[in-house]
Amino acid sequence: MKKILFICHGNVGRSPMAEFTFKDLVKKHGLQDEFEISSAGTSKGAAGILMDPRAKGKLTENGVPCKEHYAMPMTDRDYDDYDMLICMDMINIRDLYRMTDNDPEEKISMLLDFTDRKGEEIADPWYTGDFDATWRDIIEGCKGLLDYCQKH
After folding, report:
1. Mean pLDDT of successive 10-residue stretches along the chain, which has 152 residues
2. Does 8 qualify as catalytic in the annotation?
3. Catalytic one of 24, 52, 124, 137
4. Is 14 a catalytic residue?
5. 130 in catalytic set
6. Which long-range contacts (CB under 8 A, 24 or more apart) does 46-53 make?
7. Which one from 8, 66, 87, 142 is the annotated catalytic residue?
8. At the top level of CATH, which class does the domain 2-151 belong to?
């Protein structure tokens, strides 16, 4: 079983969008028994806050089922418990390197690294307000990640 944790700053927008999108793709491919998928934030400041309703609305608009989601901060155990920690931007990467003693097991990457857009960030719609662009990046990244996981 491959265990994947999607990471953004607060775990109220991008990472839960990626979590539910990836879960939906995995289910559509009949692979749900092969994955454990979750999301978390690098910040503890948003802990317990409901997922941004605009993010949930964008998922619903695109046919991605999502349940109620409350923000969770990443814990020290997450690095050991998950095989892959998938970040949305370089600030998340920097935070995780600090939290994990520089990623000794090389588990950390960015979501768009699994596409032809390696190294690109997913803009934070909390600041941009552009959930359409975030959705396009997340679906592209999740499809690339699924393809990668099926090959490795």
Report:
1. 97 97 98 97 91 96 95 95 98 95 96 97 91 97 98 92
2. yes
3. 124
4. yes
5. no
6. 46/9, 46/10, 46/11, 46/12, 46/71, 46/73, 47/71, 47/72, 47/73, 49/10, 49/12, 50/12, 51/12, 51/13, 51/16, 52/12, 52/13, 52/125, 52/126
7. 8
8. alpha beta
